[in-house]
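Tip: read the tokens left to right.
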């Protein structure tokens, strides 16, 4: 006799909720082990590469654990929108997910909220005066969502802009921290993000010691915010070194 598919789906949903509750209880404990074996203050291994898309003015590919992102930059090119002459250029950002980027198939789509956040994170770092009355388009595509998506997108986009020769005050690096009770966990996975009490994300220009964006969700004490910011800024500084090494290798390889 055939089973009812809807009954099976409901059972799976109930099991998923139960597992999520169990993980949340585990994460609230003082000591627990991260699924990938990292310490609480250890970031995922980062793989960065420029020149990932030949048709673009500049591009980059980033892989942080299970999170995989590719960013293509086009321009500067003449702005299509009718506009009065401006001494500064325009920056357009678009973030989208592939249909196979998450465990639930078919959810890939444009992510307007992330597109806006990416724009805010990058705008302060780009010297817009160097391309007046023109537009630079940044297209980010998440190939696989494994947690900490937005920080990886921002970091990869900054590298793609540098690859395109867009003038910037400094490279932009981004890192997030999740809060679990008394514990702070840097560079969370999607499993950890699903159970977090709150998150803090910083986007900064490490060489200039300037923050271009700060995002905070959940309830935080002032002491925890300060601790999380220090963790993020230190990680951003180290990430920027990896980004510079990537650009130097690309430059030496093309010469």
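Filled-in amino acids:
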């Amino acid at each position: 006799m055939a089973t009812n598919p809807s009954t099976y789906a409901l059972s799976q949903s109930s099991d998923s909720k139960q597992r999520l509750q169990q993980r949340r209880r585990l994460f609230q404990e003082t000591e627990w082990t991260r699924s990938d074996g990292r310490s609480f203050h250890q970031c995922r291994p980062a793989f960065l590469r420029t020149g990932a898309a030949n048709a673009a003015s500049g591009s980059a590919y980033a892989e942080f654990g299970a999170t995989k992102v590719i960013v293509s930059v086009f321009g500067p090119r003449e702005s299509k929108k009718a506009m009065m002459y401006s001494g500064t250029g325009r920056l357009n950002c678009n973030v989208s997910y592939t249909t196979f980027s998450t465990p639930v198939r078919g959810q890939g789509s444009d992510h307007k909220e992330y597109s806006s956040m990416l724009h805010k994170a990058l705008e302060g770092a780009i010297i817009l005066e160097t391309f007046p009355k023109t537009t630079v388009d940044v297209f980010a595509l998440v190939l696989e969502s494994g947690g900490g998506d937005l920080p990886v997108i921002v970091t990869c986009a900054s590298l793609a802009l540098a690859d395109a020769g867009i003038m910037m005050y400094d490279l932009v690096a981004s890192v997030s921290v999740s809060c679990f009770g008394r514990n702070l966990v840097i560079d969370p996975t999607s499993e950890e993000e699903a159970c977090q009490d709150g998150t803090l994300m910083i986007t900064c220009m490490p060489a200039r010691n300037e923050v271009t964006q700060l995002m905070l969700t959940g309830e935080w004490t002032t002491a925890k915010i300060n601790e999380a910011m220090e963790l993020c800024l230190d990680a951003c500084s180290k990430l920027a070194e990896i980004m510079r090494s990537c650009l130097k290798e690309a430059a030496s390889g093309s010469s």
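Residues 37-254 form a domain with the Ribosomal Protein S5; domain 2 fold (CATH 3.30.230.70). Confidence is low (pLDDT under 50) at residues 1-13.
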